[in-house]
Amino acid sequence: MTSRFIGGFAALGLLLAAPLGAAQAADMPLKAPPPVLAPVWTWTGFYIGASVGGDWARDVVRPTIPDGGVFPRDNLITPHNVTGAGTAGYNFQSGLVVYGIEGDLGYLSIRGSSKDLLGGTEVDFIGGSGLYGDVTARVGYTFDRLLLYSKGGYAFYNGTVMTTTLLPGFTVGSGRFSGGWTSGGGLEYKITQDWSVKGEYMFFDFGTKTATLTGAAGVFPYSNNLTVQTVKVGVNYRFNWGGPVIAKY
Fold it and tell me: Fewer CB within a 10 Å sphere, N or C end of the chain?
């Protein structure tokens, strides 16, 4: 009799405990799903690249003393042609701001001449090897894969200028450009973590150089002020030595 009572009481306890256990299980929080890993488009690191485009030059030639023609006067040489360059640089990134240093070494096909109609028989020339380069600071702002940037700094151009005349007895002296400055900006877009494409505009001012005509009457200097505008498209490759940056969402 006693054993039957104990057995019945135990069965009743199990029936009462079952709903309580189910309620406690329902109240337990669900296990969080694993984080989703996604790449962050980082710009930090060393990169190299190449670009090609067009250049538009403007050489303003002026006699600095009276030379027998109209004085003062300007004569313009405005050649335009193709340009190309190799690029190397290094980026640092702080949040959405990217900054660094970049250098270009390439070719400006600036060759041309213009007859000085107000200077008698004079003809002004610009030419040279076409070698140019620049070293610039670069700063930009990122929009996911897109980088909007500006840049500026030192530039040089290995070009020469001279003025000739059909009058006998004159010796031609040429002037050679060297240092100047440049500024501009562009857009760069990442195709992958390592490869990007860009479009860029730059303005160059290579300063003023003097060409001369020397004859029995003396030395006649002609100043040449050269500015160049370029528009280029290019591709860059970033050396991803540190591996991609991964963010958890």
Answer: N
Q: Find out whether 184 and 202 touch, Cβ atoms under 8 Å.
A: yes
Evaluate whether residue 222 is within a structural domain.
Answer: yes
Is residue 65 assigned to a domain? yes
- Burial environment of residue 196 by CB neighbours within 10 A (0 to 12, 13 to 18, 19 or more): buried
Helix (H) or strand (E) holding 181: strand 179-190
pLDDT digits (tens, 9 = 90+) for 62-89: 999 999 999 999 999 999 999 999 999 9
What is the value of pTM for the model shown?
A: 0.82
Asked if 160 and 128 count as a contact pair (C-beta separation under 8 A), the reply is yes
Q: Tell me: the pLDDT tens digits for 14-45?
A: 444 445 454 454 455 556 666 555 557 899 99
Q: In the chain, how many domains are there?
A: 1
Is residue 44 in a domain?
no
- What is the domain range of residue 223? 53-240
